[in-house]
Here is the input.
Amino acid sequence: MFDNQTIGVTCPKCRNQIETTIGWLKTSDKVTCTGCSSDFVIDKEKLFTGIKKAEEASAKLRRSIGDIGEDR
Ligand SMILES: [Zn+2]
Here is the structure.
């Protein structure tokens, strides 16, 4: 569900923020820095733990938004 979500990855070499999508990272673990043109590998385990947390948080958010609705 987050495949089209753009995330910023920080280049470990020049600290440049590279925008990539979660869908891309699911199929490839390499990102090319737009600042210094170096390839680096994403720590997917860390990344997907973070995404999972975000998904859980947004599920929680949706639930709490759902609770706001009242029948009239
Ligand atoms: Zn870089």
Observations:
- The chain has one domain: 6-68.
- Strands lie at 6-10, 17-21, 30-32, 39-41.
- The radius of gyration is 16 Å.
- The first strand starts at residue 6 and ends at 10.
